[in-house]
Amino acid sequence: MAVLEVDIRKAGYAADAEIIRNIAFSIEAGELVGLIGPNGAGKSTTIKSLLGLIRYVDGSVNFGGEEGRYAYVPEQPVLYEYMTLWEHLQLAASAYELDEATFLQRAETMLERFRLTGERHKLPTGFSKGMQQKMMLIIGFLLKPDVYVVDEPFVGLDPRATRDFLELLEDERRRGAGVLMCTHVLDTAERICNRIILINDGSVVAKGTLGEIREQAGCAEDAPLTDCFYALT
What we know:
Layout: E1 2-14, E2 17-28, E3 32-36, H1 43-50, E4 56-63, E5 70-73, H2 85-96, H3 100-113, H4 129-143, E6 147-151, H5 159-175, E7 178-182, H6 186-192, E8 195-200, E9 203-208, H7 210-217, H8 225-232
Parallel strand pairs: 3-7, 3-8, 5-6, 6-7
Antiparallel strand pairs: 1-2, 1-4, 8-9
Helix pairs in contact: 2-4, 3-4, 7-8
InterPro entries: AAA+_ATPase (IPR003593), ABC_transporter-like_ATP-bd (IPR003439), ABC_transporter-like_CS (IPR017871), ABC_Transporter_VariousFunc (IPR051782), P-loop_NTPase (IPR027417)
Pfam families: ABC_tran
Keywords: ATP-binding, Nucleotide-binding, Transport
């Protein structure tokens, strides 16, 4: 069952200035799909288009699953200057309409998992980039949505936090959530992604399993994803 179906014929920030074109893919329940490409290729525009953050979009996007809910974890943390970590979590829980018991159980578990329990009443504006990123991940995991859209999640995370994030993501995939992950960390993408979408110059230049990407790039059967990236971009 597809939890996300995307068919964007064209999109941009002005009616007569398209940035991306012919972006079509789907994500199945429990599947992790990597979105990769060089800087300026159109990855961010693709994500903003499917989230409804761009006005000029010609196409369709459908979030499926049981409730059609999704969580977006941006590359740059979104912080409210005078709110503590715990208050950020409470605000997210209110927006998600989580009941108090569910919120408390999930929030406590996530804070302990990411070793932020002692920071709950502090202002995240004073946190390191990695700690801020952990907060955004916690907010995403609070919802337990049908789809995760995650933009460069590894930026600023230390190895332990990266492991915790990947383990939690694997748990969510077993639950049936689909994941679209935009990343430049190609060795990790090669290891964890079921399929890969490679964008260059505003359109998809290759997509499929790593084996299919290798074939489309004209690379050897054992070539790393990095070699395919260079060949296609």
